[in-house]
Design brief:
By secondary structure, the chain is of the alpha+beta class. It folds into three domains: 49 residues, Helicase, Ruva Protein, domain 3 (Orthogonal Bundle); 95 residues, Tetrahydropterin Synthase, Chain A; 40 residues, no CATH class. The chain contains eight helices and five strands. The strands form two sheets. A three-stranded antiparallel beta sheet has the order 1-2-5. A hairpin with a 5-residue loop joins strand 1 and strand 2. It is globular and about 60 Å long. 26% of the residues are buried.
């Protein structure tokens, strides 16, 4: 493992030099695997931080698309005004506002979707599948898969990030929590269009 690999990994992930070295040791010098190791560790740290802390500071940001016909407002919360003024936090807020404008999510996360809406979706899927002669357990798995796809469409946290479809908005936020060392959460969002 070379110093260039450590520097490259640090630039990719924003992790500390020692963490990068440990991840490269663990991955046998593979930079991509090391980045994945750091991402998983960062998400574990992010989950712990989110459970233990309260986000009372933050910013509200408005994004208006170039055509002036679509816009979004997002409230992004963090623990301190120091982090709220940080460029990484502000870039995250802007990216989430662009995401809301581009994808028009209806809910923040699956737990925010009303049970009657989920049941209606399940009923429609089952009606579509009624003509197919599949065992009940197979149909249940198909319904589960289609509901997961529905969440990707209507829940902001489950949507693939428009700038990198390999990660979700939840992954993006967890990466920034790991980078900034504070709890970050979306307080609210709205989309406007003509």
């Amino acid at each position: 493992m070379s110093t260039q690999d450590i520097v490259k990994l640090r630039e990719m992930t924003g992790a500390g030099m020692l963490d990068c070295k440990k991840a490269l040791d663990e991955s046998g010098g593979d930079v991509e695997k090391a980045a994945e190791i750091l991402r998983k560790k960062g998400q574990a740290k992010a989950a712990k931080k989110s459970a233990e802390r309260e986000a009372k500071e933050g910013l509200v940001h408005a994004y208006i698309h170039a055509n002036g016909r679509v816009g979004a407002m997002v409230m992004l919360l963090c623990e301190t005004d120091f982090v709220a003024r940080n460029e990484v936090f502000q870039e995250l807020l802007h990216d989430i506002a662009m995401q809301v404008a581009a994808t028009s999510p209806l809910y923040l996360a699956p737990e925010n979707v009303p049970e009657e809406v989920i049941q209606k979706e399940k009923d429609m899927i089952k009606e579509e599948m009624a003509d197919e002669s599949k065992p009940a357990d197979v149909l249940d798995k198909i319904v589960e898969g289609k509901i997961a796809k529905y969440y990707e469409e209507v829940c902001l946290m489950n949507q693939p990030f428009i700038k990198d479809e390999d990660i979700t908005i939840a992954d993006l936020i967890n990466d920034k929590i790991a980078t900034l060392g504070e709890k970050i959460e979306i307080g609210d969002f709205s989309r406007f269009s003509i």
